[in-house]
Amino acid sequence: MSKPLDLLAVFAHPDDAELLCGGSLARSADAGERVGILDLTRGESASRGTPEDRAREGDVAARILGVSLRRNAGLPDAGLENTLPLRHALARHLRELRPRVVVTHWLEGRHPDHRETARLVLDAAFLAGLRSLDLGPSHHRPFKIVHAIGFREDAPPPSFVVDVTAQVDRKLEAMAAFASQWEGATGAGEAFPGGDRPLPEQVLAHLAYWGSRIRVPYGEPFWTRETLAVDSLGGLGVSTF
After folding, report:
1. 3-state class of 109 per DSSP?
2. Contact assessment for residue 191 and residue 133, using Cβ atoms and an 8 Å cutoff
3. pTM (2 decimals)?
4. pLDDT for 228
5. Cβ distance 60 to 176 under 8 Å?
6. Could you tell me what percentage of the chain is helix, strand and coil, using 3-state DSSP and rounding each to the nearest 5?
7. Contact 87, 99 (CB under 8 A)
8. Which of 143, 82, 78 is nearest to 110 (CA)?
9. Of 33, 159, 222, 226, which residue is least crowded by CB atoms under 10 Å?
10. What is the predicted pLDDT for the residue at 183?
11. Could you say which residues of the chain have pLDDT below 70?
Protein backbone atom coordinates (compact mmCIF):
# COMPACT_ATOMS: atom_id res chain seq x y z
CA MET A 1 0.00 0.00 0.00
CA SER A 2 1.35 3.44 -0.94
CA LYS A 3 1.98 6.21 1.56
CA PRO A 4 -1.29 8.00 2.50
CA LEU A 5 -2.14 11.24 0.73
CA ASP A 6 -2.59 14.55 2.50
CA LEU A 7 -4.87 15.80 -0.28
CA LEU A 8 -6.73 14.06 -3.11
CA ALA A 9 -8.58 15.88 -5.89
CA VAL A 10 -11.46 13.72 -7.16
CA PHE A 11 -13.06 15.16 -10.29
CA ALA A 12 -15.17 13.83 -13.12
CA HIS A 13 -12.88 14.44 -16.08
CA PRO A 14 -9.19 14.93 -16.84
CA ASP A 15 -8.68 18.75 -16.73
CA ASP A 16 -11.40 19.50 -14.13
CA ALA A 17 -8.91 19.55 -11.26
CA GLU A 18 -6.60 21.95 -13.09
CA LEU A 19 -9.41 24.39 -13.85
CA LEU A 20 -11.10 24.33 -10.46
CA CYS A 21 -8.26 23.95 -7.97
CA GLY A 22 -4.95 23.58 -9.80
CA GLY A 23 -3.34 26.47 -7.94
CA SER A 24 -4.30 25.04 -4.56
CA LEU A 25 -2.99 21.59 -5.48
CA ALA A 26 0.33 23.15 -6.47
CA ARG A 27 0.45 25.18 -3.26
CA SER A 28 -0.09 22.05 -1.15
CA ALA A 29 2.61 20.23 -3.10
CA ASP A 30 4.96 23.18 -2.59
CA ALA A 31 4.30 22.95 1.15
CA GLY A 32 5.52 19.34 1.15
CA GLU A 33 2.09 17.72 1.25
CA ARG A 34 1.52 14.50 -0.64
CA VAL A 35 -1.08 15.38 -3.28
CA GLY A 36 -2.94 13.20 -5.77
CA ILE A 37 -5.50 13.55 -8.56
CA LEU A 38 -8.15 10.90 -9.27
CA ASP A 39 -9.97 11.45 -12.56
CA LEU A 40 -13.16 9.40 -12.48
CA THR A 41 -13.52 9.07 -16.26
CA ARG A 42 -11.26 9.14 -19.31
CA GLY A 43 -13.33 11.80 -21.05
CA GLU A 44 -14.29 9.42 -23.84
CA SER A 45 -17.56 11.23 -24.57
CA ALA A 46 -15.99 14.67 -24.94
CA SER A 47 -16.53 16.70 -28.10
CA ARG A 48 -12.79 17.37 -28.48
CA GLY A 49 -9.72 15.18 -28.25
CA THR A 50 -9.42 11.50 -27.40
CA PRO A 51 -9.00 9.67 -24.10
CA GLU A 52 -5.41 8.95 -25.12
CA ASP A 53 -4.79 12.66 -25.70
CA ARG A 54 -6.18 13.54 -22.31
CA ALA A 55 -4.19 10.85 -20.54
CA ARG A 56 -0.95 12.23 -21.99
CA GLU A 57 -1.97 15.79 -21.26
CA GLY A 58 -2.96 14.86 -17.72
CA ASP A 59 0.45 13.37 -17.02
CA VAL A 60 2.12 16.57 -18.19
CA ALA A 61 -0.22 18.73 -16.11
CA ALA A 62 0.41 16.61 -13.00
CA ARG A 63 4.16 17.09 -13.35
CA ILE A 64 3.68 20.84 -13.71
CA LEU A 65 1.59 21.02 -10.55
CA GLY A 66 4.01 18.79 -8.65
CA VAL A 67 1.43 16.25 -7.49
CA SER A 68 2.65 12.86 -6.27
CA LEU A 69 0.34 10.71 -8.38
CA ARG A 70 -2.49 10.75 -10.88
CA ARG A 71 -4.78 7.84 -11.63
CA ASN A 72 -7.99 7.21 -13.53
CA ALA A 73 -10.93 5.24 -12.13
CA GLY A 74 -12.21 4.29 -15.60
CA LEU A 75 -15.84 5.08 -14.80
CA PRO A 76 -18.23 5.96 -17.69
CA ASP A 77 -17.96 9.49 -19.04
CA ALA A 78 -21.36 11.19 -19.36
CA GLY A 79 -22.68 8.27 -17.33
CA LEU A 80 -21.63 8.98 -13.76
CA GLU A 81 -24.38 8.28 -11.25
CA ASN A 82 -24.42 8.01 -7.49
CA THR A 83 -25.19 4.29 -7.54
CA LEU A 84 -23.99 1.57 -5.18
CA PRO A 85 -21.58 -0.03 -7.71
CA LEU A 86 -19.92 3.32 -8.43
CA ARG A 87 -19.79 4.18 -4.71
CA HIS A 88 -18.00 0.91 -4.07
CA ALA A 89 -15.61 1.49 -6.98
CA LEU A 90 -14.66 4.93 -5.66
CA ALA A 91 -14.51 3.71 -2.06
CA ARG A 92 -11.84 1.18 -3.10
CA HIS A 93 -9.68 3.97 -4.49
CA LEU A 94 -10.14 6.00 -1.32
CA ARG A 95 -9.10 3.03 0.78
CA GLU A 96 -6.02 2.48 -1.37
CA LEU A 97 -4.93 6.14 -1.48
CA ARG A 98 -6.00 6.99 2.11
CA PRO A 99 -6.34 10.77 1.71
CA ARG A 100 -6.86 13.03 4.72
CA VAL A 101 -8.70 15.68 2.67
CA VAL A 102 -10.67 15.20 -0.55
CA VAL A 103 -11.55 18.13 -2.82
CA THR A 104 -14.22 17.73 -5.48
CA HIS A 105 -16.91 19.47 -7.52
CA TRP A 106 -19.59 21.81 -6.20
CA LEU A 107 -23.02 20.25 -5.69
CA GLU A 108 -24.34 21.65 -8.97
CA GLY A 109 -22.76 21.87 -12.39
CA ARG A 110 -23.28 22.38 -16.11
CA HIS A 111 -22.23 18.81 -16.81
CA PRO A 112 -24.35 16.12 -15.11
CA ASP A 113 -21.14 14.27 -14.26
CA HIS A 114 -20.00 17.20 -12.13
CA ARG A 115 -22.98 17.27 -9.81
CA GLU A 116 -23.15 13.48 -9.63
CA THR A 117 -19.47 13.39 -8.67
CA ALA A 118 -20.03 15.74 -5.74
CA ARG A 119 -22.59 13.40 -4.20
CA LEU A 120 -20.75 10.25 -5.21
CA VAL A 121 -17.61 11.43 -3.40
CA LEU A 122 -19.47 12.16 -0.18
CA ASP A 123 -21.25 8.80 -0.09
CA ALA A 124 -18.24 6.76 -1.19
CA ALA A 125 -16.09 8.43 1.47
CA PHE A 126 -18.56 7.36 4.13
CA LEU A 127 -18.73 3.78 2.86
CA ALA A 128 -14.93 3.57 2.66
CA GLY A 129 -14.81 3.94 6.43
CA LEU A 130 -17.13 1.05 7.27
CA ARG A 131 -15.00 -1.62 8.94
CA SER A 132 -17.25 -4.55 8.02
CA LEU A 133 -17.83 -3.58 4.39
CA ASP A 134 -15.66 -5.92 2.33
CA LEU A 135 -14.17 -3.85 -0.47
CA GLY A 136 -10.65 -5.23 -0.43
CA PRO A 137 -8.29 -2.69 1.15
CA SER A 138 -8.63 -1.88 4.85
CA HIS A 139 -11.22 0.71 5.83
CA HIS A 140 -10.36 4.41 5.62
CA ARG A 141 -12.56 7.48 5.80
CA PRO A 142 -11.21 10.90 4.75
CA PHE A 143 -11.19 13.51 7.50
CA LYS A 144 -12.78 16.25 5.39
CA ILE A 145 -14.58 16.75 2.07
CA VAL A 146 -14.08 20.13 0.39
CA HIS A 147 -15.96 21.53 -2.63
CA ALA A 148 -14.33 23.78 -5.23
CA ILE A 149 -16.84 26.53 -6.02
CA GLY A 150 -14.94 28.65 -8.54
CA PHE A 151 -17.09 29.97 -11.43
CA ARG A 152 -20.36 28.89 -9.79
CA GLU A 153 -23.06 31.55 -9.37
CA ASP A 154 -25.29 29.27 -7.30
CA ALA A 155 -22.74 28.46 -4.59
CA PRO A 156 -22.82 30.12 -1.15
CA PRO A 157 -20.01 32.40 0.01
CA PRO A 158 -16.79 30.41 0.32
CA SER A 159 -15.77 28.89 3.62
CA PHE A 160 -12.22 29.90 2.75
CA VAL A 161 -10.06 31.11 -0.14
CA VAL A 162 -6.55 29.80 -0.85
CA ASP A 163 -3.91 32.31 -1.92
CA VAL A 164 -2.55 30.91 -5.20
CA THR A 165 -0.61 34.00 -6.28
CA ALA A 166 2.71 32.15 -6.28
CA GLN A 167 1.21 29.20 -8.17
CA VAL A 168 -1.00 30.96 -10.70
CA ASP A 169 1.48 30.66 -13.58
CA ARG A 170 1.77 26.92 -13.01
CA LYS A 171 -2.01 26.58 -12.84
CA LEU A 172 -2.31 28.22 -16.25
CA GLU A 173 0.56 26.13 -17.60
CA ALA A 174 -1.12 22.95 -16.36
CA MET A 175 -4.36 24.04 -18.00
CA ALA A 176 -2.53 24.76 -21.24
CA ALA A 177 -1.22 21.19 -21.20
CA PHE A 178 -4.77 20.13 -22.17
CA ALA A 179 -4.41 21.60 -25.65
CA SER A 180 -6.87 19.09 -27.11
CA GLN A 181 -9.59 20.59 -24.91
CA TRP A 182 -8.80 24.24 -24.45
CA GLU A 183 -6.58 25.56 -27.21
CA GLY A 184 -8.33 28.68 -28.52
CA ALA A 185 -11.22 28.28 -26.07
CA THR A 186 -13.02 31.17 -24.38
CA GLY A 187 -14.81 28.98 -21.83
CA ALA A 188 -14.54 25.49 -20.36
CA GLY A 189 -16.37 23.37 -17.81
CA GLU A 190 -17.85 25.65 -15.19
CA ALA A 191 -16.12 28.72 -16.67
CA PHE A 192 -18.57 30.42 -19.01
CA PRO A 193 -17.12 32.41 -21.91
CA GLY A 194 -16.45 36.08 -21.26
CA GLY A 195 -17.20 37.29 -24.78
CA ASP A 196 -14.13 36.76 -26.95
CA ARG A 197 -11.77 36.83 -23.96
CA PRO A 198 -9.37 33.83 -24.09
CA LEU A 199 -9.89 31.21 -21.40
CA PRO A 200 -6.68 32.04 -19.47
CA GLU A 201 -7.81 35.67 -19.16
CA GLN A 202 -11.28 34.56 -18.07
CA VAL A 203 -9.76 32.33 -15.39
CA LEU A 204 -7.44 35.08 -14.19
CA ALA A 205 -10.38 37.46 -13.85
CA HIS A 206 -12.14 35.02 -11.53
CA LEU A 207 -8.99 34.30 -9.55
CA ALA A 208 -8.35 38.02 -9.16
CA TYR A 209 -11.86 38.55 -7.80
CA TRP A 210 -11.47 35.85 -5.17
CA GLY A 211 -7.95 37.00 -4.40
CA SER A 212 -9.25 40.48 -3.66
CA ARG A 213 -11.57 38.98 -1.06
CA ILE A 214 -8.53 37.94 0.99
CA ARG A 215 -6.38 40.93 -0.08
CA VAL A 216 -4.01 39.04 -2.40
CA PRO A 217 -3.65 39.06 -6.20
CA TYR A 218 -5.15 35.61 -6.91
CA GLY A 219 -7.22 33.07 -4.95
CA GLU A 220 -9.30 29.91 -5.34
CA PRO A 221 -12.57 29.57 -3.35
CA PHE A 222 -13.81 26.49 -1.49
CA TRP A 223 -16.80 25.50 0.64
CA THR A 224 -17.21 22.99 3.45
CA ARG A 225 -20.27 21.85 5.32
CA GLU A 226 -18.53 22.32 8.65
CA THR A 227 -17.78 25.57 10.44
CA LEU A 228 -14.02 26.09 10.42
CA ALA A 229 -12.07 26.74 13.62
CA VAL A 230 -9.39 29.42 14.16
CA ASP A 231 -6.63 29.32 16.75
CA SER A 232 -7.28 32.74 18.23
CA LEU A 233 -8.98 36.06 17.52
CA GLY A 234 -5.66 37.83 17.84
CA GLY A 235 -4.20 35.86 14.97
CA LEU A 236 -6.94 36.51 12.43
CA GLY A 237 -5.93 37.52 8.91
CA VAL A 238 -7.49 39.63 6.11
CA SER A 239 -7.70 43.31 6.92
CA THR A 240 -11.06 45.00 7.48
CA PHE A 241 -9.76 48.24 5.90
Report:
1. coil
2. no
3. 0.96
4. 94
5. no
6. 40, 15, 45
7. no
8. 78
9. 226
10. 81
11. 1
